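ugh ok fine here u go
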Amino acid sequence: MQRMGVDTGGTFTDFVMIDDGVLRIAKRLSTPHNPSAALLAEVALHATANILIHGTTVATNALLERRGAITALITTTGFRDVLVIARGDRPSLYDMEQTRPAPLVPDALRLEVNERTTFDQQTITPLVDDDVVALIPLLDAHHVQSIAVCLLHAYANPAHEARIGAILQAHNPNWQISLSHQIVNEAREYERTATTVVNAYVAPIMSRYLSDLATQLPVQTRLRIMASDGGGMGVVTAQALPARTTLSGPAGGVVGAFAVAQQINITQIISFDMGGTSTDVALCDGDLPRSSGSAVGGLPVRLPSLDIHTVGAGGGSLIRRDAGGALRVGPQSAGAVPGPACYGTGTQATVTDANVVLGRLRSDAFLGGGMTLDIQRARTAVADIAQRINTDTIEAALGAIRVVNAAMARAVRTISVERGHNPRDFALVAFGGAGPLHAVHLAQELGMTRVIVPRYPGVLSALGMLSAAVTRSTTRTLQIGFDQLNIAQLNTIIIATTHELTAALISDGEQPETFGHTIYLAMRYRGQAFELDVPLISNTQGIPLIDEALLQQIQQRFHELHQRRYGHANPARAIEIAMVRHTMANDATPLPAPITPTRDTPYTPVHTVLTYPNDDTTAVMTAIYQREHLVPHDVIVGPAVITQLDATTVIPSGWQALVHDTLTMTITPV
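structure:
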């Protein structure tokens, strides 16, 4: 069986093909005007692929660029402005001029119906069908394409939402209807409303994209989409829940990084994915970093995801002088078009151009020699920046690298130091097209002593997609004291969620009997505003019913987790259970064993050149190696540059790389 993983990024689209255990990779420049064009061009060369797993930025870009569908919101009378009021937190505490992102639904399309249910499923004000019908002329007049329906306490009693959806769909079958109890079945009005609106906003564009893509793929190719929680899903689910794809590509990278580290018996890692437009980091402390929600463009998405932190720093990030005369890098990016100056069409200096000027990125080895970089164009662009800040070209290039490294170091500290972890206890897994270029210098700044570079770092997100399990999750809200929890009630919920998830998997063409069940209880001390997800059952086959002994163990797990997360616990305090989270997933696909190259003679550099591999302006003779020539147990002592099709690795003086049996490299101080 041939499988293909495809990760569409801002600059490049990455491909990994596995055919009978043989792995091949490819990279193409992305096609922002039509994201599927680069994908289909490569698929045409591998028309025998049986399964294609796709990480897509279609939904994410629609949110960030505000080019989604014309969307309306229907909610309970008195709650139309929940979307605008949001929360009282300030993302930047001392910024006196900050503004919230504008709501995705304009004022005129935030509509109300006179109905009311309670948190305990009681109906106070019945829904009148004519009130819903009365809204239709307004929806038609504004040429609405998608509608979010989010009623008060619909997570407890969804009957009114379901009725509104039926009325609207009967009037216009082409409308995309997102009902909150089907999107995020949880309490908290703002997060539930915002997530339902996000789903409705991107649903039409995502639905069209997937429908068009599916019709252009070979008939034998089955399409799956990477979800934000690190799992795959079928086209039916992706069209109904496009909000699950907002971290599609980065999630594949974290899955791949953790799988590569596990192959060499390392389970504590910080994944460092530096691409063309941004850098994504995540901390894995023995498992994938799961979260009950994320944020994209300042908008909350309350759906299962991996805990990934993103900063606007990538190889294509633009270098500039700010109004105060200081050097700045990003978040603006040259993207794929026009791209960095060294690509031959851009004129503005980028991080990639700085690496070219320093000799760290080889002009004759980019994309395995398939693309020649314009060194003089890069020098001209960086020299222009140097003139603006009154320094020389080399110092300007080094300054840009230091600035972008500092931004990425802050991102790593956000997910580690600020959460009670010491980054020195973790290995830095570097991937993405630019990750291995910066990884060792970033590790030095953070005090880390181990950098892992996978065999195929530039396409690791696509490789991770091939190893990801298929997942589907759902939630039930409880909001009761732990002492009030009835085991029969909990088992009834689990049986109901099992049936719901099973039906969803069948609709995607999966075989649910091969899936395991994982259940979390979202727990808190009475009076707290937020919960901790405490594992109750992990990857159990069959319907996972609960008994008294298992339920009692969960209390101690909660106290231990609270102590680890916040530094304190209070076993004497009453506990509340807010929600039950139920996930079904099949087994992840193991990464294929590498084809180990053989060599009878000692390895030698391809050649030696003068570069700037260290964090200073001293040029040193640097050995240039080709990654495909390295075999297990090779040791490379810096300064060195290792080139390959999908990435370049820089090893400064004082560090050395060891090649493992899996062909993964570990770089450590000498």
